[in-house]
Amino acid sequence: MQRSKNDVWVGLFVLIGAVAILFLALQSANLLSLSFQTNYMVNAKFDNIGGLKPKAAVRSAGVVVGRVEKIVFDDKSFQARVTLALESRYAFPKDSSLKILTSGLLGEQYLGLEPGAGEKPLVAGDTISSTQSAMVLESLIGQFLYSKAAEGGTTDKAKQ
Asked: Taking Cα atoms as reference points, which of 83, 94, 96, 92 lies closest to residue 49?
C-alpha cells in the first residue's frame, strides 16, 4: 500500500515537471502569451517586413505593449499589412511611428512603437502611416561592397 502511494506521488511530480517544461518552451519560443488584458487592433503597412512573424512583440521604450496579430500581403498597394493587438491600458497618439527592429545582431525581429506628439489617441481600426521597414542584412552588405568597389575604381583612376 505504501509503495503504491509513493508511485502515485512520483508520477504526479513527473507530470507537473513535464507540463512546466512544455510551458517554458512555448513561452520562450513566443508561441504562447498569457495576457488577460483587453486589446485593440491597429494596422500598419510596410514595404519589407524581413523576418517579422505573427506573435512578435510590439515594444515601446523596451516594454512589451502588444503583439503582432497577423501579417497579410495587400495586392492593391503591394505592401505587407500588419495587424497589431495593443493592450488597452496603453494609449498612443495617432501620429506614432513603427520600426521593425532586431534584438541583437541576428536575433528575433520585433516592432518598435515610438509615440508621436499628437493629442488624439489611436483607436481600434486606425492605421499607423509612419513606418520604417526592416533592415535586410544582405542588402546592407551588398551596398557596402558596391560602394567599396566604386571607391576602388575611382582611386585607381586618380593615380594614373
From this structure: 83
Q: Cα(131)–Cα(69) distance, rounded to whole angstroms? A: 17
Cβ atoms within 10 A of the Cβ of 127, count? Answer: 12
**Could you tell me if 8 and 54 lie in one domain?**
no
Counted domains in the chain = 2
Secondary-structure breakdown of the chain: helix, strand, coil percentages, each rounded to the nearest 5: 30, 30, 35
34-73 residue pLDDT tens: 666 788 999 999 998 988 899 889 999 989 999 999 999 9
**Separation between Cα atoms, residue 146 and residue 143, nearest integer Å:** 5
pLDDT in tens, 2-41: 778 888 999 999 999 999 999 888 877 766 666 667 889 9
Residue 151, domain member (yes or no): no
145 falls within a domain: no
Question: How far apart are alpha carbons 5 and 20 in whole angstroms?
Answer: 23
Looking at the fold, whether 47 and 125 belong to one and the same domain comes out as: yes
Range of the domain at 21: 1-32
Do 2 and 81 lie in one domain? The reply is: no
56 by Cβ neighbours in 10 Å (0-12 / 13-18 / 19+) ranks as: buried
CB 58 within 8 A of CB 144: no
